[in-house]
């Protein structure tokens, strides 16, 4: 048997079946996408979220009638080939997070992945209010972004770290993955949002320094524009354009795209993962580097790519409509086919927000 054939067979049979994971924000959105992709790879996933069948969320930005609960995600994880465990709790409850870590210790005896995707927006500031001035948003936006998106991630990592250290000592290579965003690099949506995301990136960077000697990695994951249930509902109600500033949701990423990025990272050799620890990892850029795709064989561009920036901020569809009908189709074809997938350096991208789409559509 040729050696390369053996490698191919082993690679095809790779599974995350020994992997035990905690995923917060798992009832919907990116958290659900991460949980399902871990499940497809054979992992045991503790799906954490506020929304359970006994206490469903009533946020206006979510579609009515869908089963967006931790139980539904856990069942889908199991159906996909993993083991889903539903855990209904509020991520702002420190005691509940401590009890979760202890439960995982008692039931599984190891912990390989902590994926933090829990996030909250005050109901009064959903939709267009998410982009409002900070002095009108006040402390409500600050507390939501930082209390759930930042503080709960820190507290969970504090509680989970001892078990992850033990897992690493027994031969594993655990990882902490916190869902952040390009808002950590450049102005996005509002002040509190950007401060929270920048703090998330720093949390990962500094945790990685202390986790490295004990064999644990930590990364910030940057999705692009994601077709979450909430965003699709905003689009259905005609509020997406105002809430996002006119970004193209139709060509956005699926929630599972971020999950595939995490699974791919888990499959990398320890030395490769170690080199990425403490850094920002853009999901779309990982897809190109590690060779994976979104649904339908698509590879959405990174938000800092010209292929994203030009159609969303420079030559927008609204701008094209200002050209004569005889010219507009040719310009659109040239835009869609000829704009290269070239990344702006972080130093350029972080220099300030791109011009609002509305300014180029007048």
Explain what you see.
- InterPro entries: NAD(P)-bd_dom_sf, Sc_DH/Rdtase_CS, SDR_fam.
- Keywords: Signal.
- With 362 residues, this protein is of the alpha/beta class.
- It has two domains: 282 residues, NAD(P)-binding Rossmann-like Domain (Rossmann fold), CATH 3.40.50; 55 residues, no CATH class.
- A seven-stranded parallel β-sheet has the order 3-2-1-4-5-6-7, sandwiched between helices.
- α5 runs parallel beside α6.
- The radius of gyration is 21 Å and the shape is globular.
- 44% of the residues are buried.
> At CATH's second level, what is the architecture of the largest domain?
3-Layer(aba) Sandwich
Q: Tally of extended strands? A: 7
End-to-end Cα distance: 66 Å
Roughly what fraction of the amino acids lie in strands? 5-15%
Structural class, by secondary structure, is: alpha/beta
Mean pLDDT: 89
Main sheet: strands, sense, barrel: 7 strands, parallel
Low-confidence stretches: 1-14, 358-362
Q: Report the order of strands and helices.
A: HEHEHEHEHEHEHHHHEHHHHH
- Helix content range of the residues, please? 40-55%
Order of adjacent strands in the largest pleated sheet: 3-2-1-4-5-6-7
Shape: globular
CATH class identity of the largest domain? Alpha Beta
Keywords: Signal
InterPro entries: NAD(P)-bd_dom_sf, Sc_DH/Rdtase_CS, SDR_fam
Signal peptide: 1-21
